[in-house]
Amino acid sequence: MNSFATGFATGFSTQEQTMRGSGRSSRTVVSNRATSIRLFDLFLNGSNAMSSFAARMKRSLGLKAGIATLMLSSMGVMQGAYAAGTASGTDINNTATVNYTVGGVAQTAVNSNLSTFKVDRKVDLTMTAGAATSTTPGATGAAVIYTLTNTGNGTDSFTLAGANQAGDNFDVTGIQVYRDNGTTVGAYDAGDTLVAAPISLTADQSVQLFIVSTIPLAATSGQNSIVRLTATTTSTATAGVDNPAVVDIVFADAGNNGLEFANNQYNIQAATLAVVKSAAIISDPVNGAGANRKAIPGAVIQYSIVVTNSGTSNAAAVVLSDAIPANTTYVASSMTLNAAALTDGGDADAGTTTGAPVSSISVNAGTVASGGGAATVTFRVTINN
Question: What is the pTM of this model?
Answer without folding.
Answer: 0.68
